Fold:
Amino acid sequence: MMNNLHEITLLVSKCQNCALHHSRIKSVPGEGPDNARIMFIGEGPGFHENQQGRPFVGQAGKFLDELLSVSGLKRETVFITNVVKCRPPGNRDPQPEELEACSKFLDRQIELINPEIIVTLGRFSMAKFFGQVKISQIHGIMRKIGQRYVVAMYHPAAALHQPALKSTLLDDFSKLKKYIHQVESEREIKEVNSNKYNSIVVEKKEDEDTPTQLSLF
Ligand code: SF4
Structure:
């Protein structure tokens, strides 16, 4: 069960675990490489996403592409999904029971992809990691939660309704570029230390082997 992303896509396409399946045209499981280091989690599919079965393809998706380029990212290198995989009718908020029913798919996607950084887009994906906080207080700030980093951002669609948020989002995504460099540096340091440790272990093992070999003669 759900051994890879393809299996999740198949299960989501047939899923009837919540009321949202009644009105969906296409489910939107998410897309991107299964080893993406960065994962974006939005709210739910909108009109165009429901038609095409792909995440962030409407106006908000165009703005997300602009935001990704501000962070130095290309869409094809990141994984993009939503907290609910089927469109809430009329773009209403997903209901608690719908979020709960769909969470097993998102949780398994996170486990399988194991991203270094999760970027939440909007209130619902933020609440999954940060609980009941105000997005105005924590947006754009990277926090370590468990084994990975999480950054809460406003949803790109919010900037289409409130133009003032556009510059906030552009600022926050430019910070994301710095966070990505920070996490990459941490990973490189860990890898160097791990290589050093492995070479010490090998050297020690060779030292330990020497007396045994000598004793044979
Ligand atoms: S939103 Fe999630 S739980 Fe609900 S029907 Fe779609 S895939 Fe299933």
Observations:
- Residues 12, 15-18, 20-21, 27, 84-86, 98, 101-102 surround iron/sulfur cluster (CB under 6 Å).
